[in-house]
Specification:
Blueprint: H1 3-8, E1 11-14, H2 16-20, H3 29-40, E2 44-48, H4 57-63, E3 68-70, E4 75-78, E5 81-85, H5 90-102, E6 107-110, E7 115-117, H6 123-130, E8 139-140, E9 152-156, H7 163-168, E10 172-178, E11 181-186, H8 191-202, E12 209-213, H9 219-224, E13 227-230, H10 236-241, E14 244-245, H11 253-260
Parallel strand pairs: 1-2, 1-12, 2-3, 7-8, 12-13, 13-14
Antiparallel strand pairs: 3-4, 4-5, 6-7, 6-9, 9-11, 10-11
Helix pairs in contact: 3-11
Length: 264
């Protein structure tokens, strides 16, 4: 890459579910072509997701992407090298687990390699994780969070039942992603802050940063990155936060959004 090309190089972060992936959790042909063209032009293509790294390894391989923000900013990788981690506090996680057991709410613990559940055969775990189409459910290991870094947990409770946890656990943020499940994250973490770990290291200014998203955990990213695109299927809050609104993830929204942003 020449010096002039390096100067013009941009970085584009894509959320996965509802954004880079269609409703069947697959990559549209137009999306695959658009990503390849971005890379051909010398731009950096990255992922910014709430998913665990092992939940989207197949996407990274298919699209030749080795830079990503996972766990909503708690585990950040640039060109295959870990550049930032922010694990959950183990003592607080122990107390949350105790309360969840008392309330008969399941908990799943997730590190950078795998996930385990504190209970077995839970219908809410099966139903919510099943929507991700990853082909696996967490095995049972109630002590998986001990003596290892857990970057995200999942708390399984119905809407409204999370209020008690929110009141008691100030060191955690709770973000609902399914009617039966919430992400449990380190307080104050976000995709946007994780993105900053990469863009600062690379020295890429805000005007050459782009982001695509559709959901609540994308809001800070869409608001904070000047060149942001909300998907047509996105929540009203996402559309309000973004600079542009594209077509849906089922209607070539990635390719169209990149044209809106002037990258293609």
């Amino acid at each position: 890459m020449s010096a002039s090309q390096e100067h013009e190089r941009s970085i584009v972060f894509f959320d996965l579910d509802g954004t880079l992936l269609n409703d069947a959790k697959e990559i549209n042909p137009s999306t695959r072509e658009a990503i390849a063209e971005l890379q051909k032009r010398g731009h950096i293509v990255a992922i910014a997701t709430g998913r665990a790294p092992f939940f989207f390894e197949h996407v990274r391989r298919e699209l030749n992407i080795d830079t990503y923000v996972s766990y909503n900013g708690s585990y950040v990788v640039h060109e295959g090298e870990v550049v930032f981690t922010n694990p959950l506090n183990e003592d607080a996680l122990q107390k949350l687990t105790d309360l969840a057991l008392k309330n008969k709410h399941a908990v799943v613990y997730m590190d950078h390699e795998d996930m385990r559940a504190n209970v077995s055969g839970n219908d809410r775990v099966a139903e919510s994780i099943g929507t991700l189409n990853i082909g696996a459910l967490p095995k049972h290991d109630p002590l998986y969070y001990k003596d290892r870094f857990i970057y995200q947990s999942l708390l399984f409770c119905a809407e409204g039942e999370e209020e008690l946890y929110e009141e008691l656990f100030g060191s955690f943020d709770f973000v609902r992603w399914h009617p039966f499940s919430l992400d449990v994250l380190p307080a104050g973490g976000s995709k946007f802050k994780g993105i900053g770990r990469i863009t600062e290291q690379l020295g890429i200014p805000p005007e050459r940063q782009y982001a695509f998203g559709d959901a609540l955990n994308d809001l800070e990213m869409l608001e904070g990155i000047p060149n942001s695109v909300a998907m047509g299927n996105g929540l009203p809050e996402a559309k309000a936060a973004a600079r542009w609104t594209s077509r849906s993830n089922e209607e070539d929204g990635i390719a169209y959004g990149l044209k809106l942003a002037g990258l293609l």
